[in-house]
Design brief:
Helices cover 73% and strands 0% of the residues. It is globular.
Length: 93
C-alpha cells in the first residue's frame, strides 16, 4: 500500500481501500492522511471527479464511523478525519 502512495499512485491506493476496506488502525493514519492530501491536490473535473471524491468520502466515513465506536472517539485523529470527510463530501457534491 505504501508503495502506491510513494509512487504517486494515490488513485490506485484509493481503489484498493474502497475494495478491501480501510481499517482504522493508528499505524495506517499517516497513509490515509497522505492519500487525502494527494486526492485533494488532484485537478479533477468531469465525471471521474465525483467517482473519486465519493470513493474517498465513503472510505473516510467508514474510518470515522469505526473510530467513533472506539476509545479514539473525540481524539485529535478522529476530528482530523471528520474534517477530511467533510471536505470530501463537499467536493463530491
Amino acid at each position: 500500500m505504501w508503495h502506491f502512495i510513494k509512487s504517486n499512485a494515490s488513485l490506485s491506493a484509493l481503489k484498493l481501500f474502497t475494495t478491501y476496506g480501510a481499517p482504522p488502525l493508528p499505524q495506517n493514519f499517516n497513509i490515509y492522511k497522505r492519500l487525502c492530501m494527494e486526492v485533494f491536490g488532484e485537478n479533477l473535473e468531469g465525471g471521474t471527479a465525483y467517482s473519486i471524491y465519493s470513493s474517498l468520502r465513503n472510505m473516510l466515513f467508514s474510518i470515522v464511523d469505526e473510530l467513533s465506536r472506539t476509545s479514539e472517539s473525540g481524539s485529535l485523529s478522529c476530528r482530523e478525519f471528520e474534517q477530511y470527510l467533510l471536505v470530501s463530501h463537499y467536493l463530491a457534491t
